[in-house]
Write a structure and sequence with these properties.
Length: 419
């Protein structure tokens, strides 16, 4: 098991460069198998989720060439459409192979996806969308195995009961070569969706409206090779911005797209955080006397659920009471008991939390329960007095490329060990 060890309360000065977005690259890789030719993906982050998907590609007999930050995918000899349970449940994004393999082979067999333990995480919207496109969905092995097949995929009007990121992307992929026109209504608008649409269009798809609540896809006969650059990771950027608000001494976060973090920056402004925006970078200084504020996570472009946990650490340092509500996932409070063990004052009840600050945090031995809870624990360890040991640090490495190097390079005393 990996542990992250932090000696806290060190100022953060210097530059942190934001990498490619995890929640983009985990969809771009499966989408690439639709191409009859080579697909090149650049600005690929060095995260373990990417490696799990490459394992699946290899199983499908897809040729993968890797170099730093670049993946080249050649599906000309792809010949398998069955993904075993041990690979399906490695990460949530394995489910994008449902849309991709259904399109490629008109049949796919795989298991319920994995991912962070932050709720039941159903995939009913994906499956209903595949059925709307003409597929049948069979479940086996106590509903853990899915066999999805179609004689032909035909364009349809699909209304999503919830603006689901995964369902929007999966159905966009599945509709690219369906016969006729597909409309996805109440589509998710997260920035990553436009990145995937850009790749598919670069491969010859006809997708319009990505990034809005209505996406139209005109089916095409084939998709050729293409190229895409992964957009900067807005959640990685937001996490380091929060750390800069707590410990920055002219900390520069660069290579981000500020528009993707507008709602976080508005909140920081409300709190009185000292930051300056310059094109694709932000300069942060530790802010005294932070004002409390209320945070409610909602679908894009609202406050992102994936920043709720790191944000809770900033709220523990605000002078007063802040109210927090998580509306996307039913169980995203895995960080609370550990922050309280470090000296925070957070009263949490299901999806609501009341955070009283400021509280002095001290180092403790704690455990990462999921990716973003882990990011919150790193943030708390950085401001705590003394030593913090974070167990199950593998969760954190799934979504934050080279987090130890990036934080050490700006003055944090942080290391990782294997026990
Ligand atoms: C994506 O998950 C992200 N993961 C999540 O980030 C992120 O929290 C989430 O979008 C919301 O922004 C990836 O992109 C790999 P959803 P996804 O479908 O697609 C319900 C991280 O930390 N729902 O938008 O799984 C669901 O239960 C991760 O990087 C259904 O009911 O999220 C949830 O309440 C965590 N039925 C809500 O919709 C479905 O078929 C949002 O889910 C699908 C979803």
């Amino acid at each position: 098991m990996k542990q992250i060890i932090i000696e806290g309360n060190k100022s953060l000065s210097g530059k942190i460069k934001i990498g490619g977005a995890k929640n983009s690259v985990v969809a771009l890789i499966p989408a690439a198998i639709l191409a009859s030719g080579n697909v090149k993906i650049t600005n690929v982050p060095n995260i373990s989720d990417k490696d799990a998907l490459i394992e699946i590609l290899k199983l499908l007999n897809v040729k993968v060439k890797k170099q730093t930050g670049i993946i080249e995918i050649d599906s000309s000899e792809i010949k398998n459409n069955v993904i075993p349970e041990n690979l399906s449940n490695k990460l949530r994004a394995s489910y994008y192979f449902m849309g991709a393999l259904l399109t490629k082979f008109k049949k796919v067999e795989m298991y319920f996806p994995g991912g962070c333990n932050i709720g039941s995480r159903p995939i009913d919207l994906h499956l209903k969308g595949f059925e709307a496109l003409g597929a049948t969905v069979k479940k086996e092995e106590e509903d853990s195995k899915y066999i999805i097949e179609a004689n032909e995929l035909k364009g349809a009007n699909i209304f999503l009961d919830f603006a689901s990121v995964g369902a929007t992307i999966n159905l966009m992929i599945a509709a690219t070569m369906a016969k006729g026109k597909t409309k996805i209504m109440n589509a998710a608008r997260e920035a990553e969706i436009s990145n995937i649409a850009d790749l598919l269009n670069n491969m010859g798809a006809k997708i319009s409206g990505a990034g809005t609540e209505e996406i139209t896809i005109i089916g095409v006969k084939r998709l050729h090779g293409g190229e895409i650059k992964v957009i900067p990771d807005r959640i990685e950027a937001g996490t380091y911005i929060i750390m800069g608000a707590l410990l920055g001494k002219n900390l520069v976060i660069e290579g981000m797209i500020p528009e993707h973090n507008i709602v976080l920056l508005n909140k920081l402004q409300e709190m009185g955080v000292d930051f300056k925006l310059q094109n694709h970078k932000i300069i942060l200084n530790k802010s005294k006397n932070l004002n409390p504020t209320n945070v409610r996570t909602v679908v894009y472009p609202g406050f992102p659920t994936d920043l709720g946990q790191p944000m809770a650490v900033l709220l523990t340092q605000a002078h007063g009471i802040s109210l927090f509500e998580e509306t996307i996932w039913e169980n995203r409070m895995g960080h609370v008991k550990y922050l309280n063990k470090m000296g925070a004052k957070i009263e949490a009840e299901r999806q609501h939390a009341k955070i009283t600050g400021p509280t002095k945090l001290h180092g403790e031995q704690i455990t990462a329960t999921d990716l973003r809870a882990g990011a919150a624990l790193v943030t708390a360890g950085l401001i705590a007095e003394g030593t913090t040991i974070i167990n199950d640090a593998e969760h954190i490495l799934r979504g934050y490329e080279r987090i130890i190097n990036k934080l050490s390079s700006v003055g944090a005393n942080i290391r990782i060990t294997e026990i």
